[in-house]
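Exercise 7. Predict the joint structure of the components listed below.
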Amino acid sequence: MTLRDHAIRYGFIVLLFGLVAYFSIAADGFVSPQSAVFIFQSVAITGVLALGVTATLVVGGFDLSIGSVATSAMMAAAYVMVVLEQNALVAVVVCLLIGAIVGLINGWLIVYMRVPDLLATLGMMFLLVGLQRIPTEGRSIATGMTMPDGSVANGKFSDAFLALGRHRFDFFIPNLIPVSVVVLLVLAVLIWFFLEYTRFGRMMYAVGSNERAAELAGAPVKAYKIWAYVISGVFASIGGILLAARLGRGDIASGNNLLLDAVAAALIGYAVLGAAKPNAFGTAVGALFVGILLQGLTMMNAPYYTQDFVKGVVLVVALVFTFALSGRGRR
Amino acid sequence: MVGNAVFRVEGLRKSFGQNEVLGGVSLELHAGEVTVLMGANGAGKSTLVKIISGVYERGGGTMALADQDFAPKTPAEAIRAGVVTVHQNINDGVVADLDVATNLTLDRLSGSGAPTLFNPVRVRREAKAVADRMGLAIDLKARVSDLSLADRQMVAIARALAHQPKVLILDEPTSSLSSAEADRLFALIDRLREQGVAILYISHRMSDIRRLANRIISMRDGIISGIFDKKPLDYEGAVNAMLGRKIHLDQIVVRDSANAVLKIDGLRIAPDARPISLMLGDGEVVAITGLVGVGKTALAETLFGVRQPLSGTMTMNGKPYAPETTGEAIAAGVFLVAKDRGENGIVGGFNIQENIGLPFHKRMSRFGILRRRLERTTARRQIEELGIVCRSEKDEMSELSGGNQQKVMVARWMAQDARLFILDEPFQGVDISARRDIAAKLRASANGRATLLFVTELDEALETADRILVMSEQTIVGEHRNADVDLDRLLAEVAGGPLHSAA
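Solution:
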C-alpha cells in the first residue's frame, strides 16, 4: 500500500484519535468515564437513526423520513400512555409498528410506484410532521393536558417506559451507562453483523451497487429494497422511543435536528477505514466523531450556535475523503 | 455514379491507445441514395459515425464534402456544414420536457445571432415551416415526453433536417420502433432521397435494408470488407462480408446427444413471431446465432425467468419448467451469463471473490450467515480453473482486463453445477486468447448439462458449438450440425430471406 492508500484508510481514525488527544490536554475533565458516557448518550438517538438510514444507503436509496418517524413515534408513545392510558409495552409496540408501516409504505412508493427515493421519503416526512400534530391539535402531550374535546388527559408515562431514558446500568462505577447507550451498541453490533456477515446483507450491497446484476443473480431485488426501508423505519421508531423516554412528554418542538445529524453520521461513515460505501461500523464511528467534537468544544466553552457549522465542516471533509481521495466516486 | 459523390472519406484511421479501431476506411455517399452500413458490434461503425459528425477527432485520412475539405472540430460545426447525424438513442435527439415546436427550433435558441428573448409565436411559426417541409403531422404544442417513440424519432429527424443537410446519417433508427412505425420512417426517408439528400443508414435489420438500400457497405474489424451496389443487391454477400468467414483454427469434434435436458414447445417470445420448438441434449454445446435485434437476448431471458413467454411450454428433465423469477430459474439449475457484463454482471463495489459468490449465497451460508471461507476457496478454485490473471481473489474488478472480467463472470456461474448453462454473447469485448480459454473450458466441462450460447459472430459459433441454430425475426429459422456446415444456406438464413444466389 502506498502512503496515499494509508491516508485514505486510516486518515479519519487518526483524526479521531488526534481529536481525543487534543481535548484530553486542552479541556479539563474530558478524560473521565462520565464524560465518555455523556458523549455516547448525546449521540445515542442520532446514532440509532443513522444505523437505520445506513441500510437504505446500502441498497442505493435514501430515507429522509427518519427524523419525522422518530418524532411521530415519540408523540405516539406519549399519546398511548397519557391519553389512552396504556402501559409501556403497548406504547413500545405501537411505536415499532409505526416505524415498520412507514417503512413499508416508503418501500412501496419507491419500488412499485416508482417515486424517486428522495422525493418519496421527503413526501412521507411532510406527511408525518403534519400527522403527528392532528390528534392533539398541535399541542405537546403531557399529563394533565386539556384535550380538544375539553376533557383532561390523566394518564402518565409509566415508570417502566421512563426507565428506558433514565435508568443507568452499573459498569465498574455504579449508575454509569444509560439504557440508550446500551441500545445503540446492541443495534450497532446487530446491523453491522447483518450487513457484513449474512447473505442478506451481502445481497443488499449488491443491489446498491448493480441492481440489474443482483436481479440476474437471482435476488428478489424489490423485496430487499422494501426491507431496507422497513429496517430504517423501525430503527427510527426505536430512536423515537428513546427520545420520548428521555423527555418524559410528547414534545412537539423536539427532534428537529435528528434527520440531518443522522444523515451526516452515516455519510461521515463512508470515509472510515476507506470503505467509500455505507457501512455500519463507519456510521457508528461517524456519530461518535461528531459527539466527541461537540463535547470537546463545549467543554472548551465554544458557543452552542457554532455546533451546526462544525458538523457541516466535518461532513464536507469526510465527503472529500471519500470521493476525491479514494477515487471510488468515479465508478 | 462516380461523379456525383457528395461526401467522400479517404483512408480514415482512428486508434484508442494501442487499440486500432479504424484501419483506413474509404467510402463515398451519393446524393439521392441510401447507403446502408452494416457491421457487427465492435466493427467500428459508431467510431466512424462519431468522426464524421465531429464528436471524435480523426487519427488520419481525409474527408471531403462536395469536394471541399471537411474537418469538423465539434458536432455543431459538422451540422453547420450540412452533415447531420441522428444518433441511435432517440432521447439524445430531443428534450423530453419541451414541446414539439421548441424541439424543432432548439438549435436556433443558442449560438451567435440568436435572439435573447424567447418568442413563442415566432418559434411556433418557424417550427411549422420545418414540420410542413417534412410532412410531419404532429401537434406542435404536444410535449415530447407524451409522444410515442416513433413520433419522438420523427421529431429528432425533423430537428436534424431543419438544418437542410446535404448528408444525413441515421444510426439504427428503427431499433426501438414497431414495423408500422418504421414504415412511416421509411416513407420519410424516401421523400428525402427524392430531395437529393445523401443518406447513410446504419442497421442490422435485414427487412429495413431490403426496403431502403441503394448500396450496401459492410464493415469488419475497422475496415470496409465489402461494397455492394450492383442490382439486385447481394444481401447474403453483405452479411457474409460483415460476419467474415475465417478459417477456424481448432476444428472441433462434434458430439451428438440423445438425452434431452430441455425441451421447448411452441414458445413465442414476440407478438407476431412464429413459435420456437427445440431440444437441448446432455453434454451438447448449442450456439444460436443471428443478427442483433432478432430476439436472442429475449429468448435467453425467457429461459432464465427474466421475462415470460407469450405462449408455449418448456420441459426440464421431463418436468414442466416455467420460471417466473431468476431465483426460480437458478433453483432449477438454469444459469445465465448475461451479455454486457458491465451492465448486467459485474457488481462494481465487490471484489473477485464476492462477485463469484453472488448467485450462490444461499448454498454458501449456514443459518443465513455467509461462510466466507467456503466463498474464498470456491473463488480460488474458479480462478485456477479458468486461468483468471489476478494477484488474488481480493482484487477489484476494475483492475482486471476485459477478458479476465468476462472469465470471472463465467467462473461465477460455473462454481456450481448447472443443468442448463446459457451464455449470452460471452465473447463480447474479450480478446482472442480469453475467448479460446472460455470456449475450451465450456467444451471440456459440457458433460452433465446442456450448454446454450447466443452469439452474433458466426466464427464464435463455429469454434465452440456442436450444433448451430439460426435465429431471425424472433424465431429459429435454421439448424446445422457443426460438421460440414453449408455456409451459404446458413448465411441466407441469417440474412433472413428465401434462399437465392444473387451473384
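Discussion. Chain A has a mean pLDDT of 90.
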